[in-house]
Write a structure and sequence with these properties.
The complex is a heterodimer. Chain A is of the alpha/beta class. Helix content of chain A is 52%, strand content 12%. The radius of gyration of chain A is 20 Å and the shape is globular. Chain B is 54% helix and 11% strand. Chain B is globular, with a radius of gyration of 21 Å. In chain B, helix 1 packs antiparallel against helix 6, helix 12 crosses helix 13 and helix 13 runs parallel beside helix 14. In chain B, the strands form two sheets. A four-stranded parallel β-sheet of chain B has the order 2-1-3-4, sandwiched between helices. Chain B has a four-stranded parallel β-sheet with strand order 6-5-7-8, sandwiched between helices. Classes of the chains: A alpha/beta, B alpha/beta.
Chain lengths: 328, 360
């Protein structure tokens, strides 16, 4: 059986169930790299120039972990999934960059995803991708439709059951996930999934919040409608492909009555430097929900992050106490 | 309506000429200075790139002089540039300036979009007047760039260092003052002649270094700490493929007709980078591949955290075509002595390389 490698980084969290279904329908075996470790980051960052952002360094580490475990590496160049809204350069150049910095990588299945070129072109690219695994166009079509279905189910699962992507993926794989306590106070995390759910990159941020007794809300739990209304309110028309995750969810959660909002960005991230700024400005304007901007990079130490987190949670507690006193 | 624009090299000269001919109330903010940078840095989001910070500084300084309508490039599918106007407008508002930013699309409908913006800003001047003013602006741009090209050739070989720079500064002033085609032509012939008369070292065979990278830091000497002049002082001839006039000519007139000067670069980059990644990333890789044979070295300029250039920087070492590349990241932390040391070391390396080649 042909083995297709999927690095557990960047777009993995958004599209894994879809990709998995597609390749498995075409009778390929999907190999996913193990969760990020300090070593993943170390080998990854030894390959790229220093100013490359943290998530891309981690991505290279994951590719290296898969190098001799698969026959093909799946790295799409995701340009645009909505009309005239484009992605960050690093996503556009990802297959080419990987080829340049990891010459020993097995053949890369790169597919251009650009909705602006028309649906026909998109179908053609999907077909070309499938051609590596099957000669039969009908089978590729069936696989693509099944993949699309899987993607929708995945997204619905996260919205309906308020699951974060790793939990939803575990649920799809048949594992149990802990049930929610609706009375718990909530903290919303805002940012890209590859920062929020990679426990090495964010030093187990969700875990720390849960330990402190908070339920974590994530961008994925919101419907497209909620996200789009929030973006329209904040900036008008979205400019970046993943603007919903940041500006959309940030805008929504700041006015949704959560205890606090934490924005998570990677140091040196181009789009986020602007998008998180928009959210921060909105938080300052509204003055209703406490907001903290957490910048992550290789040198961020867990202790430093925990200290900031504790200070933020203390502030929320104090605020609540004061409000209670005023009410009495 | 008082109109303000950000600076980029000498671009203000043609813009000013255009505005004067259309009787627009036009403010040229003070030339980019340390103060501009400080203002920009203070009010920009932390991780922004230097073009954003400097243009924001320019806009704030223009607003201080009373400008209430700003002209900024924007568009989609480029890089952060497309988002500049949105954020800068919010910054200006939060500082208490009630300024509106008029964004000019640089990605689609370029010429028409620009002309329409001018029409709006000039209070509906007749088209004939707009087009003639526009042509005059372009003529000034062309003169400036022609003189600059000549200056680049003279700098490394002049006997008295700094002569060419002095002449260029005078030429810029003269171009700014020229108010009809005749005067403009005189400026051009006059200064080209003066440059050709500069006393040169006839035996010199200067090293040839190409300057590649991101558009703004290439064209705004303040942001790259005058890297071209410094290389000239070290006796290096600088070649640069991006000139404002070229860019305007192609992107406004020829690209819509299907002629693309960058096709050659894209084709060269193809084996290493197959697709447009926004900004100038594709062209940077293409230039390295294309010029590996005819230049001695390349200086790659990029703003710190520039997304397309980081991808290009990662891809460049893997090309078969081999040529030394020095990447200089520009931001508010870039210091002159540090940059000079790196340039000197790089030039030494190129000299050794050339000597080794001659021996073989």
């Amino acid at each position: 059986m042909v083995k297709v490698g999927i690095p557990r980084a960047l777009l993995y969290y958004q599209y894994y169930p879809m990709w998995k279904t597609f390749f498995e329908e075409l009778r390929a075996e999907v190999v996913v790299s193990p969760p990020t470790t300090q070593a993943t980051l170390a080998v990854g960052s030894s390959r790229v120039v220093a100013d490359t952002c943290l998530p891309v360094k981690v991505f290279c580490g994951h590719v290296l972990a898969l190098v001799d475990k698969c026959d093909y590496m799946f790295i799409p160049a995701l340009r645009s999934v909505k009309s005239k809204i484009y992605n960050c350069s690093k996503f556009l150049g990802l297959p080419d960059m990987t080829r340049a910095v990891i010459p020993e990588c097995p053949p890369i299945l790169d597919i251009d995803i650009d909705i602006n070129k028309g649906k026909r072109k998109l179908y053609q690219y999907i077909y070309e991708l499938g051609r590596h695994l099957s000669w039969n166009p009908l089978k590729i079509r069936r696989a693509a439709l099944a993949a699309w279905q899987a993607h929708h189910e995945y997204k619905e699962l996260m919205v309906n059951e308020s699951l974060i992507p790793p939990q939803a993926i575990a649920r799809i794989d048949g594992e149990e996930t802990p049930s929610l306590n609706p009375d718990q106070p909530t903290i919303a995390l805002v940012g890209h999934p590859y920062l929020l759910y990679d426990e090495l990159i964010n030093h187990r941020l969700t875990h720390h919040l849960e330990q402190a007794g908070y339920r974590v809300l994530a961008p994925e739990m919101l419907t497209t409608d909620q996200l789009e209304t929030a973006i329209t309110r904040l900036t008008g028309r979205p400019y970046w492909t993943y603007e919903e995750e940041v500006v959309g969810s940030g805008g929504h959660y700041l006015e949704s009555g959560v205890e606090g909002v934490i924005g998570v960005v990677a140091f040196g991230c181009g789009p986020d430097s602007l998008m998180m700024d928009m959210v921060q400005r909105q938080a300052i304007r509204l003055k209703t929900t406490p907001f903290m901007n957490l910048t992550l990079e290789e040198h961020t130490a867990a202790a430093g992050m925990v200290t900031r987190l504790e200070a933020f949670l203390d502030m929320i507690q104090r605020r609540k106490r004061k409000e209670a006193e005023l009410c009495v | 309506m008082r109109i303000g624009v950000p600076h980029m090299g000498n671009l203000y000269i043609p813009l000013k000429a255009l505005a004067q001919r259309l009787n627009m109330d036009f403010i040229v903010p003070p030339l980019t200075s340390q103060r501009t940078l400080s203002l920009g840095v203070r009010y920009s989001p932390e991780g922004m790139c230097i073009p954003f910070k400097l243009t924001l500084g320019n806009l704030i300084e223009a607003a201080e002089l009373g400008a209430d309508t700003m002209l900024m490039p924007a568009g989609s599918g480029i890089c952060r540039l497309g988002y500049y106007a949105k954020t800068q407008e919010q910054v200006l508002h939060s500082l208490g300036y009630n300024a509106e930013i008029v964004s000019v699309g640089v990605s689609q409908r370029k010429l028409l979009g620009l002309l329409e913006a001018i029409k709006r800003l000039s209070n509906n001047a007749p088209w004939s007047k707009i087009i003639s003013a526009f042509r005059f602006g372009l003529a000034k741009l062309n003169v400036l760039d022609d003189i600059e090209r000549a200056v680049q050739k003279v700098r490394p070989v002049e006997r008295v260092k700094g002569t060419a720079n002095k002449l260029f500064a005078q030429a810029v002033r003269a171009t700014e003052q020229a108010d009809d085609y005749k005067a403009l032509k005189r400026v051009k012939t006059d200064y080209l002649e003066q440059l050709s008369l500069v006393e040169r070292d006839e035996n010199a065979e200067p090293l040839v270094v190409g300057i590649i990278g991101e558009f703004y830091v290439l064209l705004e000497p303040f942001s790259n700490l005058d890297v071209e002049k410094e290389l000239g002082k070290l006796g290096v001839e600088v070649r640069r493929s991006i000139f404002t006039s070229e860019w305007t000519k192609f992107s406004l007139f020829l690209n819509p007709l299907g002629v693309n000067e960058k096709d050659r670069l894209h084709k060269a980059a193809m084996p290493y980078l197959k697709r447009d990644i926004g900004g100038e990333g594709w062209e940077t890789v293409g230039e390295k591949v294309l010029h590996a044979k005819d230049y001695d070295g390349l200086v790659h300029l990029a703003p710190f955290t520039c997304m397309p250039e980081i991808v290009a920087q990662n891809i460049m070492p893997s090309t078969k075509e081999n040529i030394p590349v020095l990447t200089i990241l520009c931001d508010e932390q870039l210091g002159k002595p540090g940059m000079l040391t790196r340039l000197e070391a790089f030039v030494d390396l190129l000299k050794h390389r050339r000597r080794a080649k001659v021996k073989v």
